[in-house]
């Protein structure tokens, strides 16, 4: 099945870019980033930036934009059955040259999990601004359960709030 990702959440003055690989089924059905109820993304965004799960989705998006945090996925299109990153085939990346040109203040790039990191290295790292550091972060997916929420949050904070 061919899947198309979402446009970025990004204000022009964004300084932090968080990249996933491709939205999962729950997110695609809801039309929202990280909509699976057990995904740790929004609890981490709550702890770091105040974009808490109990806020409406539009309010969470506004909080992130005010805090200069952008959210996107490395891939624009792919083929995938189910939600697992391991099932992704036929990757078509998003236009990072245009994105980085329009967001010159990006200084931290957080790669949400191994698949996002591998796809970023393969398709987009050549467009990464010299002033931006890309860091692989533990996946927020409920499928990645080897770290608890506190441990994930600490690693995300250390990488993005430095």
Describe the structure.
There is one protein chain. The chain starts with a strand and ends with a helix. The longest helix has 12 residues, at 149-160. α2 packs across α6 (149-160). The chain is an alpha/beta fold and 162 residues long. It has one domain (2-160): Uracil-DNA glycosylase-like domain (Uracil-DNA Glycosylase, subunit E), CATH 3.40.470.10. The protein is globular and about 35 Å long. The protein is built from six helices and seven strands. It comes from Hyphomonas hirschiana VP5. Residues 7-160 form the Uracil-DNA glycosylase-like domain. This is Uracil-DNA glycosylase-like domain-containing protein.
Largest sheet: 4 strands, parallel
- Counting helices, strands and paired strands, the structural category is alpha/beta
What is the approximate shape?
globular
Rg is 14 Å
CATH 2nd-level architecture: 3-Layer(aba) Sandwich
Q: Briefly note the CATH topology name.
A: Uracil-DNA Glycosylase, subunit E
Number of domains: 1
Distance between the termini: 39 Å
Write down the overall mean pLDDT. Answer: 94
CATH-assigned homologous superfamily = Uracil-DNA glycosylase-like domain
What helical percentage do the residues reach? 25-40%
β-sheet strand percentage: 15-25%
Q: Spans with pLDDT under 50 lasting ≥5 residues? A: none
Strand arrangement across the biggest beta sheet: 3-2-6-7
Series of H and E elements: EEHHHEEEHEHEH
CATH class descriptor name: Alpha Beta
Number of helices: 6
State the assembly state of the protein chains. single chain
Q: What's the number of extended β-strand segments? A: 7
Pfam family, one: UDG
Organism: Hyphomonas hirschiana VP5
Domain Uracil-DNA glycosylase-like: 7-160
Protein name: Uracil-DNA glycosylase-like domain-containing protein
């Amino acid at each position: 099945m061919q899947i198309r990702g979402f446009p970025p959440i990004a204000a022009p003055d964004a300084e932090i870019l968080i990249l996933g690989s491709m939205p999962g089924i729950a997110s695609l059905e809801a039309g929202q980033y990280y909509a699976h109820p057990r995904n740790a993304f929004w609890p981490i965004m709550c702890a770091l930036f105040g974009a808490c799960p109990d806020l409406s989705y539009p309010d969470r998006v506004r909080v992130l934009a005010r805090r200069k945090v952008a959210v996107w996925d490395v891939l624009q299109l792919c083929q995938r059955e189910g939600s697992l990153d391991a099932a992704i085939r036929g990757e078509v990346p998003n236009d990072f040259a245009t994105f980085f040109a329009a967001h010159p203040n990006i200084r931290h790039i957080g790669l949400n999990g191994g698949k996002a990191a591998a796809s970023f290295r393969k398709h987009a790292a050549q467009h990464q601004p010299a002033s931006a550091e890309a860091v692989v972060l533990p996946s927020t997916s409920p499928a990645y359960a080897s770290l608890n929420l506190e441990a994930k949050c600490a690693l995300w904070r250390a990488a993005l709030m430095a």
